[in-house]
Specification:
homodimer; 331 residues; alpha/beta; Peroxisomal Thiolase, Chain A, domain 1; twelve-stranded mixed β-sheet; two-stranded parallel sheet; 14 strands; SpoVAD_sf (chains A, B); SpoVAD (chains A, B); Stage V sporulation protein AD (chains A, B); Thiolase-like (chains A, B)
Chain lengths: 331, 331
């Protein structure tokens, strides 16, 4: 490890991805690229939690299919989600019989899973690993905030949890987007206590990981075609750019936040999208297609961002610790 | 990966450990070996959750001290716990400034963290990794079952969540117990729905991982001085031995379960101890000392066991999916 960054010299590759997303999500830029756009966010299930689980299982299964693999060829599934005890991931894993590593990193789960998957494949421990995560607006609302039935007003700084899931197959064989490095984030807490203002809470963690990455690697923002954060939303993205600017690093030319761009009419969703599914859907559909099929961008620094609070920690007066793991993706 | 097992040829070592445990726990076999036996399970904090977090942070810090390292020398902290959104781990990580990987594997967190730590050190990604977890009886009761104030009767098949935390420093330098292989578990669910009978739910997952391990490695139970499961308790351990016996594998001569042995008077705690802290405390105090200082045992197969349910999954009628990750420890 040089600083907080590790390098994957064997260039493990994302050889296939799959995504599923709800009706509101597929109205936006990802709509053309998701494998399964849902008409109904219940996905023929009885509860939101079961719908979330089904989306995640769908994405995992479809990504393995898209890689033309039998599921017996997958050595490891690395997954987590936002629900208590990551039940979406654990229950989805139950149906595959693949060795399972549960991870929790809130909305930075996608990049933590990419970093770990690449670590396992690059070292030769595994030939093929699946990394997946997802979220559901309605299960997240009732777990983290209020039951939807209460009809609570959402404040203007809030974000909308993405209903969707994304999965990627990382392998030592085949064609795809290589994962060439990972910078592990540390927990950063600037003292934000407003649970409706996740963007402000997470921006310092994203800034910390991006600055660490540039310092460790000697690279600069212009070395990347795209610097992709997870779900800071409009406000959080502005704070991130300001924090970076203060340290003399200007990312404004090539920064895009998945949360800021996922919804068509941003005004309705206030600051944009959030949730583990946000960057999972945007990266594994729109961005992966842009790198692979369309060949429009070559090198991406992907830093999903997570807020590590729980309702208990907030109720006991704690502020919101956040984290961001960054991975380098190259075509 | 051969089958579900990976090998660590560079023999990353557990060079130091540290543990802390509550008054009930330190009355038993671990009492002489924990770094900090608590007189009061509140640990001078206002809430059970904050006491749990403080124990975990104590164990992490003390293990780094016991390894004679500065915390800046630790490349990565891998931790998780039983509370929603693993807040004990995330908030403990906040105070160290070490890159943090959050994991969730219920009560098999200790062996998942060992497997991942060894993976990172063996591959040369990191020189030194800290793996840690813990639990607290009172925070677990009110999150998973009932508030203590209700005074609910505990059924005879129940287990007692261990109040305690354990941490280990895994390094490519120094003397210690080597982690030489890991068998990643898959999610196994035999349809148990009784949330008070975790031992019965988890035993099939432990059996699956142990059988997979013996098959992958060609080893047999007698190749180990000790086969150490996490927190099956008395009933779960009996079920495990039966399930193994049915497959022609007899582990009765050298199997010990951390949950079965942690408490002095097992009748009071019914089936014994459970919780992520159970195997974390027993391994990192009593067993580590037995391997290192006393030199009484050389080769241990450590398979912590986890039940991946949440209150939501149980309330929605789901059975209890379980998992067990196994690691080989050699002196």
């Amino acid at each position: 490890m040089q600083g907080h960054t590790i390098y994957f010299d064997n260039r493990p590759k994302i050889i296939a991805t799959a995504t599923v997303a709800g009706p509101k999500e597929t109205e936006g830029i990802v709509g053309k690229y998701v494998d399964l756009p849902l008409n109904n966010d219940m996905f023929n299930e009885e509860t939101y939690e079961k719908a979330e689980r089904k989306m995640l299982a769908y994405a995992i299964e479809k990504s393995i299919q898209n890689a033309n693999l039998a599921k017996e060829k997958v050595d490891l599934l690395i997954s987590g989600d936002l629900l208590n005890q990551i039940i979406s991931a654990s229950f989805a894993a139950r149906q595959f019989g693949i060795p399972f590593l549960g991870v929790y990193s809130a909305c930075s789960t996608m990049s933590e899973a990419f970093a770990l998957s690449a670590s396992m494949v690059n070292a030769g421990y595994a030939d093929t690993v699946v990394a997946a995560t997802g979220s559901h607006f309605s299960s997240a609302e009732r777990q983290y905030r209020y039951p939807l039935e209460l009809g609570c007003t959402r404040p203007p700084q809030s974000q909308w949890t993405v209903t969707g899931a994304g999965s990627a197959v990382i392998s030592n064989k085949g064609e795809g987007v290589s994962i060439t490095a990972a910078t592990f984030g540390k927990v950063v807490d600037f003292g934000v206590t407003d649970v409706n203002n996740m963007g402000a809470a997470m921006a310092p963690a994203a800034a910390d990981s991006l600055l660490t990455h540039f310092k460790d690697t000697g690279l600069a923002p212009e070395d990347y075609d795209l610097i992709l954060t997870g779900d800071l939303g409009a406000l959080g993205s502005r704070i991130l750019k300001d924090l970076m600017w203060e340290k003399g690093v200007d990312i404004s030319a090539n920064h895009v936040d998945c949360g800021e761009v996922i919804y068509k009419v941003i005004e309705d969703e206030f600051q944009g999208g959030s949730g583990a599914g946000c960057s999972a859907v945007v990266f594994n559909s729109y961005i992966y297609d842009k790198m692979m099929r369309r060949g429009e961008i070559k090198k991406v620094l992907f830093a999903a961002t997570g807020a590590l609070l729980s309702t208990t920690s907030s109720q006991q007066g704690d502020s919101i610790p956040c984290i961001s793991h960054a991975v380098v993706l190259e075509r």
